[in-house]
């Protein structure tokens, strides 16, 4: 299991001060031993407490300000031509020293419209063709993208989706599966199982990735953690709720916050994820509206009391098992 930090950069505030605060938070995360920083992408007609557009531009800025590995969670394919994406991702991989993971999603038709591209965008077979096009452009033998990526064959690619075809695509054409914040645990577990089934086995420490992003609020007292989450996650969780985007295994579900609680409860949640085949979790500790001191306290508690149990491991057999492992994790409904 690897733990990273997912950044929330909102279009409701000036961008540079947000990024400066994020860089400070990432320095703290790096001192604790977190391994990566992830940024999402959205295209809106009005300001929202959510992601900025042009995730590669944001990550390119961060590449010069942190030594953490970088990831997009996720880049929306409908905002890019495959050819342009191949060049820009290769250049970003160079800027961050070959430590880029490219998380890809489709995005709705409005994304293409706002990016000035055909509204149909890649879907189904065309999505698959885009993945192949990226790999071809990064071929070590005759790369189309110059300069080419640092890593042979290009950055690691993760793809998401809530249907069986998404898990198959992740297993056969990409390097791993990505479960978004709004995927409930049942859906994440279902897609993880489908992904590993397509790959022919569970994680062995070197091959395959199942990553997810989760809102995270941690406190020494469970009730306080839940109260802080209820008070300060409203803007971010409301974005999903207003659009009916909380996804269960077979459709919409109520909000789940499995990474809200005490360090022991967070540890138990991660243990459950590992049993489900998840190999990487990105923590959204500072969404829009979260006081910086609460985000720092969450990061410190996870860094001191949770991350040491899991750093750079892929199975429960490789870690110390705390006595609380069997406890159920409290969730906020």
From TrEMBL:
Keyword Ligase listed: no
Protein's UniProt keywords contain Transferase: no
UniProt keyword list: Monooxygenase, Oxidoreductase
InterPro entries: Bact_Lucif_Oxidored, Luciferase-like_dom, Luciferase-like_sf
Region of interest (Disordered), residue spans: 310-333
Domain (Luciferase-like) ranges: 13-279
Name the record gives this protein: LLM class flavin-dependent oxidoreductase
Organism: Nonomuraea ferruginea
């Amino acid at each position: 299991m690897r733990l990273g930090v997912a950044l929330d950069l909102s279009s409701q505030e000036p961008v540079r001060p947000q990024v400066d605060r994020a860089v400070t938070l990432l320095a703290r995360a790096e001192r604790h031993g977190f391994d990566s920083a992830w940024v999402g992408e959205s295209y809106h007609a009005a300001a929202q407490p959510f992601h900025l557009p042009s995730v590669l531009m944001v990550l390119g800025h961060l590449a010069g300000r942190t030594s953490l590995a970088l990831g997009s969670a996720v880049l929306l394919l409908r905002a890019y031509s495959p050819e342009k994406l191949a060049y820009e991702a290769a250049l970003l991989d160079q800027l961050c020293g070959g430590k880029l993971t490219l998380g890809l999603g489709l995005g709705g038709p409005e994304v293409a419209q706002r990016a000035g591209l055909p509204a149909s965008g890649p879907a189904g077979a065309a999505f698959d063709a885009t993945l192949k096009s990226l790999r071809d452009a990064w071929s070590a033998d005759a790369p189309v993208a110059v300069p080419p990526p640092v890593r042979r064959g290009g950055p690691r690619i993760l793809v998401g989706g809530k249907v069986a075809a998404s898990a198959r695509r992740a297993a056969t054409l990409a390097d791993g599966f990505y479960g978004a914040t709004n995927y409930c645990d049942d859906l994440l577990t279902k897609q993880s199982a489908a992904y590993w089934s397509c790959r022919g086995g569970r994680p062995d420490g070197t091959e395959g990735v199942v990553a997810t992003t989760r809102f995270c609020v941690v406190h020494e007292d469970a009730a306080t953690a839940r109260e802080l989450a209820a008070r300060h996650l409203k803007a971010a969780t409301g974005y999903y709720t207003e659009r009916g985007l909380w996804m269960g295994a077979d459709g919409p579900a109520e909000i789940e916050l499995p990474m809200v609680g005490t360090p022991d409860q967070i540890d138990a949640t991660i243990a459950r994820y590992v049993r489900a085949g998840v190999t990487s979790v990105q923590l959204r500790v500072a969404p829009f509206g979260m006081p910086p001191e609460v985000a720092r306290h969450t990061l410190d508690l996870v860094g001191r009391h949770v991350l040491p149990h899991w750093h750079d491991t892929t199975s429960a057999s490789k870690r110390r098992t705390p006595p609380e492992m069997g406890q159920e994790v409290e969730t906020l409904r």
